[in-house]
Amino acid sequence: MKIDSKNDVLWRVFLVYFIVVAVGVLVVLAIVRIQWKDKEELLEKASKRELKVRDEKAHRGNVFSSNGSLLATSVPRYNIFFDPVSVDKKLFDAEVAQLADNLSRMLKDKSKQQYISYLKDARAKNRRYVKIANKVSVADYKKMQEFPIFREGKNRGGFIAERSYVRELPYGELAARTIGYVREDGDVYVGLEGAYNDYLKGKDGKQLVRRINGNFWMPMPSDENRDPVNGDDIYTSINIEIQDVAENALKKCLIENDALQGCVVLMDVKSGFVEVMASLSYNEKKNKYEEAYNFALRHNVEPGSTFKAITMLTLLENDPNFDIERKLNLGTTDYKVFHRRTMRDSHRVTDDDGNVTIRSAFEQSSNIAFATLVTEAFEQNPDRFIDLIYKTKINEPLNLDIKGEAKPDIKTTNDKRWSKLSLPWMSIGYEVMMTPIQILTYYNAIANDGVMVKPQFVKEIRHGNEVKHVFDTIVINERIASENTISTLQELLKGVVENGTAKSMSKLGFSVAGKTGTAQISQGSAGYNKKNYTATFVGYFPADDPKYSCIIVVSNPRGKKYYGGSVSGPVFKEIAEKVYATRLGVTDEVGRYEADCNAFTSASMVYFDDFLNYCNNENVAFVDNVQDNKWVSVEQTDDNVFVNAVEMEENKVPDVKGMNITDAVYVLESMGWKVKFEGYGKVKSQSVKAGTELRKGSVINLVLK
């Protein structure tokens, strides 16, 4: 076959030309599409790579005690990174060894040589965001800024610092479970931190930033920018000094009695504000007692004999002619059978003829007497017994601000668990479940002439010096019983201390009213045994003019003692004595200041704004010699409170004894020193004497008490 070579060549040229033209047209069309149709989308994608809106974290509010001491605060910490690529090669080669030596000495996590290798390797691999350290203190951060290479700053020295805040409790574990904690990563908030998180957290701001050379982000002006609003401060009712006394007394009790856990709650009778709440439990792994669980409000217990005050209320309210001087004949034994089940008294309460008055039966905490009385009064109508209990509202949860309160379990006759044994056993505090703080709330109502108030933990919400919210007393029940019933209960509870199971309290030097309770702990299907007990004392003082109510519950004392009076009573006694001496033993006729000023006078210096907030809140008058100083000393005489300026000299160590740890750390670290401390509370001693000249970066050790 003959091929026309000329036509073949022309055809191939035409084909190539057509392809080139077609490709050109497609390119033009693509350009047009990019310019017109996809322009906005592509610009948006590019913008997102170069621009972003960054959250600006708000500073979380502080938690204060009743006297203005810091219970929880956020302190700045820095995450340090390094961009070795941005550093001039000549500078890097000349000073990297010195930088490595400084980092090794400060951080102690790598040797000098390891740091040299780490930094050189990062530069060789063009890594621009090398982690150096996390949560560096203010003092160490300032020191790092002066390190070789780092001192050239962010752009030339590659020094990158990201500030964050960590939550610290200046008093360590003291009231830790009540204060609570924040776990930012898991969004977990417990205690007061959780209850008042909406106030404390503030409102984060927004900042438009643009990527610049070196993968850094530079703030940019924008209508969307918004400054962060710092969180509000909460001022609690917690008295940190009494809290300290209570926790130490409770811990001593738990150790002496080899108990598993226990709690203390102290409450102002009239207002319901809680001044102490401590819960300690034994941690086997750590071999110590700690606040790991809020026993006081989360743990239901069978109240045992403390419930007899509730039982007595039902008897008095049921029969207006009920006579506490009436004699009962209980027989000459210390036991009695109710529906084929034996009930016992811990000790014999009757005379030789088997007789005892109802008053004495209450004072001596006779199980048999109360089971007998309740059976007589309510066996034909048990609903009446339950109705009188429910009328007080102790069957209802308190709806506390702190989450996790266990619900009271006081069953009715309609409950499938109800039996013929329920009435006599409920009368002595079994087959009933309540939390310690719920039991205390009932006794507090007796002390408060029948008015039941809600326990509260926060008095004020403030933003700076502005008071945003004041919490008033909340009444749960205007009257839990008649005046006659309340008066009789007050009389009987006072008799328990004067003549009964809590007689050891009668020698305190002031009057006390209360009730002991010793209850066997249910082992589920195994029933009860004589090895596991709950020992309780609950009461109020002074009995004639009640100011404070208090409950102590100790679970599973495994020593020789297990009765409420002998186990929990000494804790109540120690707390009551301290409270009476510091809060009730000092009268303020002028009304200008209280003994709480001691919290400030005992410190070498205090932050003036903290003292000013306290004075504004408590209406304290003082003589101002402050001028413009932030740090002051407070002196109290019989007639006046004087506030004087404190002058601090550069490179000279100030006196921080008596200060709370947060203030002490702030003062010392802001002056360039590093602080280490042990213990909790206020500064007892400092390793470097006040007035000593000390090189910046040196360590000062503090011992707290």
In short:
The chain has 705 residues and is of the alpha+beta class.
Query: Fraction of residues in helices?
Result: 25-40%
Strand count, sense and barrel status of the largest sheet are: 7 strands, mixed
What's the mean pLDDT score? 85
Radius of gyration: 36 Å
Corresponding CATH architecture of the largest domain:
3-Layer(aba) Sandwich
Number of domains: 4
How much strand? 15-25%
Q: CATH superfamily membership of the largest domain, which one?
A: DD-peptidase/beta-lactamase superfamily
CATH topology grouping of the largest domain:
Beta-lactamase
User: What structural class do the secondary elements suggest?
Assistant: alpha+beta
Number of E-state strands: 33
The number of distinct helices, counting runs of at least 4 residues, comes to 23
The CATH C-level name of the largest domain is Alpha Beta
Residue stretches low in confidence (pLDDT < 50, at least 5 long) are 586-595
- What overall geometry do the principal axes of the alpha carbons give? elongated
Overview of this protein structure:
Strands 2, 3, 4, 5, 10, 21 and 22 form a seven-stranded mixed β-sheet that branches. Strands 13-12-11-26-25-24 form a six-stranded antiparallel β-sheet, with helices on both faces. About 0% of the residues have low confidence. Helix content is about 35%, strand content about 25%. The termini are far apart.
Topology:
Layout: H1 5-37, H2 39-50, E1 51-56, E2 63-64, E3 70-82, H3 89-107, H4 112-124, E4 130-136, H5 138-144, H6 153-157, E5 159-168, H7 176-179, E6 182-183, E7 188-189, H8 191-195, H9 197-200, E8 205-212, E9 216-219, E10 233-236, H10 240-256, E11 261-268, E12 274-283, E13 288-290, H11 295-298, H12 308-318, E14 327-329, E15 335-338, E16 341-344, E17 355-357, H13 358-363, H14 367-378, H15 382-391, E18 409-410, H16 422-427, E19 432-433, H17 436-447, E20 452-453, E21 458-463, E22 466-470, E23 475-477, H18 483-499, E24 513-520, E25 533-541, E26 548-555, H19 564-567, H20 569-584, H21 598-601, E27 606-607, H22 608-618, E28 623-625, E29 631-636, E30 641-645, H23 661-670, E31 674-678, E32 683-686, E33 699-704
Parallel strand pairs: 2-10, 28-30, 31-33
Antiparallel strand pairs: 1-8, 2-3, 3-4, 3-5, 6-7, 8-9, 10-21, 11-12, 11-26, 12-13, 14-17, 15-16, 18-19, 20-23, 21-22, 24-25, 25-26, 27-29, 29-30, 32-33
